[in-house]
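Table S2 (continued). Query chain:
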Amino acid sequence: MAIKSEYRDVETRMETIEKKVKEHKKRWWTRLIIVIVVALAIVILFELITSMRSYSNYSVINYSECSDTGAAKYESFKGNILEYSNDGANFKKPSGELIWNQAYDMTTPTITKCEDYMAIYDKGGTTILILRDTGIVEKIDTSKPIQKVKIAAQGSVAVILKTDSEYDVKLYDKKGKELAGGEYHGNKGGFPVDIAISNDAKKMAVSLIDINSGKVGTTLNFYNFGSVGQNKIDNNVGSFSYEDTIIPEIYYTASDEMIGISNNAIYYYTEKEVPKLREKVKINNTIKSVFYNDKYVGLVLDKDAKSNKKHIVVYDGRGKIAMENDTKLAYSDVEFLDNNEVCIKNASECEIFIMYSIRKFKTKFQSDVLKVMSQGSARNYVFIEKGEMQEVKLR
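Corresponding output:
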């Protein structure tokens, strides 16, 4: 019996040790998780405080050479910088290191981009280049002059072509294969002024302006190239007509909603099966400029003609105001940066606003700046001047 008792004592001690080991591990993991959560909270709080500060100056932390011809234009893409002109494009890192270059001959090179793909097309010409951050994917030669191109997240492109009063709308995949197409005649019911394509390229919308009835109106046609539109005539799943209204800007958001922007309203359409107008936001002031990305719609509105004051307002995907502020800047460019900040500028002055309706940055440049781009950290940007590209930190 003593042996059994000793065995039970040993077993009890082993159970106690195992219990203490488990409790120790549990405490260790709990402490580790608390440390990680606190560290993340500190980093997020620091970034938030940094992003909400106001700055009026900056220091150059690195610079590199770029085109000094004055003809080059610049666009951010996948964290790097595209420098393009009539005879070709260079894709560079912010440090100036060349990633790739691509030669072409275009009269009016124009950029459209979505996630991993970008297209350079010759507006008024017949060439479209589909590109990634690794270089060219495909070159498409069209039969008629190009009016507008939009690119999807998987590389397909929707295109408006025009000859005299005849228009073609076509959809190509990223290898240049024509997937769909249709004709519009300006003297028979309207002509297309803009086109939109969803990220997966299964949905497309066309904005048509009709001026033949004596009144100006807009018709929005919606097309579905998936299962929903298979049994519809020409894949058309819905149309909306508006009298005395021009809707010259349409596009799809990251959440696959289609947004139309007129001279006095923003229209939000859902497309679960067929398109429906979900929200209409009326704009009471005169719209001076429109800018957008896949999350927000931005407007610059006339506010006070006497003081030349303009009102910047940004709407989110639900049609709610996400940011608004005033500016007196006589601007030439207004756009969303890659970090969703609003940059409004001319060659010698710049203001940057964040979504908390705070003016984050206001400065006068020492020399003309062609382009401003955000770079990772809340204080890091790239300023491009004629002949020089500067990596800067706000201070």
